[in-house]
Amino acid sequence: MTATEERALDDAIQVAPLVLRDAAKRQKVEDLLEQMRFSAATVRKIQEIFVSEMEKGIHQQPSSLQMENTYIPELPDGTESGLFLALDLGGTYFRMILLELDMGRVVRETVQKYDISVELRIGSGIRLFDYLAACVSDFVINQGLQDVELPLGFTFSFPMNQHSLDVGVLTTWTKTFNCPDVVNKDAVKLLRDALDRRGDTKVNVLVILNDTTGTLVQGATQDPDTAVGLILGTGTNACYFERADRVEHWETERHGEKEVIIDIEWGAFGDNGVLEFIKTDFDRENDANSLIINSFTFEKYIGGKFLGEVVRVVLKQLYEKGLLFESHNPTDLLTPGTLTSDLVSDVESDTVHGGFENTRKVLQKFGITTEEDDMKIVQYVCEVVSNRAALLISICLAALLERMNKKSATIAVDGSLYKHHPRLKGWMNQYISLLAPRHKFKLIGAEDGSGKGAALVAAIAMRLKKRLE
């Protein structure tokens, strides 16, 4: 980064100053939040650490980035035709998707949701996968396709080690799942075995992936330059196309692949302490309030599950220092988890459009009768926290553009935070342009990578399989 570029970045990452009637209070609020603001030098240091962690991960050295090989070496090429299934597992329900493709175009799409009871989510893995297989059979038979060979892409949105395109070993359950006998087991084999026990369909599980990878593949159907998949929802993760000769973790036979999709698993970036220098008192309290302490460090700065909580912690500390809500006792706001990220997006809409309409409604949810200076402070806090999240995402995306060094690269994005936050996309475009000025890029929304994307990856896997026969 040249001195001119660094000055431009320093100017760009400044948020608008807080304007209050009480100048002394304004100064105290700004001083307290200064720890959440980055200089251009700090930005450069974060980017250097991210690049270093990527390099270590890709070479199988200790790193906070998993850099998992997905074994997906190419994207849809427009020849995909036929019927393909996707099973999308990751929450309290799962989805079955049937796609009919004709030369890469979706000509038919059928989706069915199935609930997963608490007993199935925390009990025996055999029972869980038998239930999944029963639902697959139900779906296929209802479509009248029980006698048709159906390739299936399995979206398994839990941390796993991939040993091939169709082998994914669960490392740990997250969210609301805890079936201990599945840990360190291959999820594809468990699903295949459950389908075999039924024997009433001809479903063939060809590939396992996560929603991030599916987002990249789904994005490629909209823009062939797509080279990065990004999730900005409850959590965050990214994947990208890496040169195959750089990838050391490759357990299957190579067939002259030029590139392969790497799942970074960047939610854990910094779990080894490399980002400790940007961690604030607010972040430490946010971490202490989380389900799994000292983990998912990067995600806790960014993800929709945590962004609102960071704002809440800041507001709580401002209140405790007598800088906010002086005539109130905001009991609900003092309770962890009560201020969600969608409310942050609502407040940010006021900052974009002017006024206090949404901010007033948000505070009224907490029983706070609003005063203008208090609303200005709340807006300022939401802006600082959101801006930091956008900058951290952009730092890493710019590093990916530099690493891939493509003539043009499209970043496919999915997730509720990206869709609903009114400023993230604009900030990201601005910051990535400043951080990777010599690389052409664009951001596109790519919905349902975990569904359509998985079916498309099954189509790619089918093509690869035929090529090797």
UniProtKB/TrEMBL annotation:
Pathway the protein takes part in: Carbohydrate metabolism; hexose metabolism; Carbohydrate degradation; glycolysis; D-glyceraldehyde 3-phosphate and glycerone phosphate from D-glucose: step 1/4
Documented EC number(s): 2.7.1.-
InterPro entries noted in UniProt: ATPase_NBD, Hexokinase, Hexokinase_BS, Hexokinase_C, Hexokinase_N
Reaction equations catalysed: a D-hexose + ATP = a D-hexose 6-phosphate + ADP + H(+); D-fructose + ATP = D-fructose 6-phosphate + ADP + H(+); D-glucose + ATP = D-glucose 6-phosphate + ADP + H(+)
Domain of life according to the entry: Eukaryota
Gene Ontology CC entries for this record: cytosol; mitochondrion
Occurrences of domain Hexokinase N-terminal (ranges): 29-220
GO process terms (BP): glucose metabolic process; glycolytic process; intracellular glucose homeostasis
Domain Hexokinase C-terminal: 228-460
Keyword tags: ATP-binding, Glycolysis, Kinase, Nucleotide-binding, Transferase
Family designation: Belongs to the hexokinase family.
Listed name of the protein: Phosphotransferase
